[in-house]
UniProtKB/TrEMBL annotation:
PANTHER family: TRANSMEMBRANE PROTEIN 256. It is a multi-pass membrane protein. Keywords: Membrane, Transmembrane, Transmembrane helix. Signal peptide: none annotated. Belongs to the UPF0382 family. It is found in: Membrane. This is DUF423 domain-containing protein. The chain crosses the membrane at residues 5-25, 45-62, 69-88, 100-121.
Length: 128
């Protein structure tokens, strides 16, 4: 499972860098400052959680079952949170109204919070 988690982390990190560069260079001319800042928020959270998964995949503090749950919560959370932010922020450039995705963003955020809370609970419960 560790290999899969680290692979997911690497993939998410690489995509975050690509999207960050795309936002800084490609979208700079088509989005206003607020939309660009929103897009960058999605990139930041994606990168933070790529690093989070890198830690999860390499730590000995967690069971394999817990790592798997954290991985699923994080990946789905990032897809919903950052993915919806990317689409909402680029709506003016694409001409597609993604407002219906507005409620998806906090669901993704909640899943990411649950992943962090699960890590916290497992570390607190772990005996030295």
């Amino acid at each position: 499972m560790n290999r899969k988690i680290i692979a997911a982390a690497a993939f998410m990190g690489a995509i975050a860098i690509i999207l960050g560069a795309f936002g800084a260079h490609g979208l700079k001319k088509v989005l206003d400052e607020t939309q660009l800042a929103t897009f960058e928020t999605g990139v930041k959270y994606q990168m933070y959680h790529a690093l989070f998964l890198l830690f999860v995949g390499t730590t000995a503090l967690l069971t394999e079952k817990t790592k798997k749950i954290i991985c699923y919560l994080t990946v789905i959370g990032v897809l919903l949170f950052s993915g919806s932010i990317y689409l909402l922020a680029t709506s003016p450039a694409t001409g597609i109204d993604f407002k219906f995705l507005g409620p998806v963003t906090p669901i993704g955020g909640l899943l990411m919070i649950l992943a962090w809370m699960l890590l916290l609970m497992q570390v607190i419960r772990k005996k030295a």
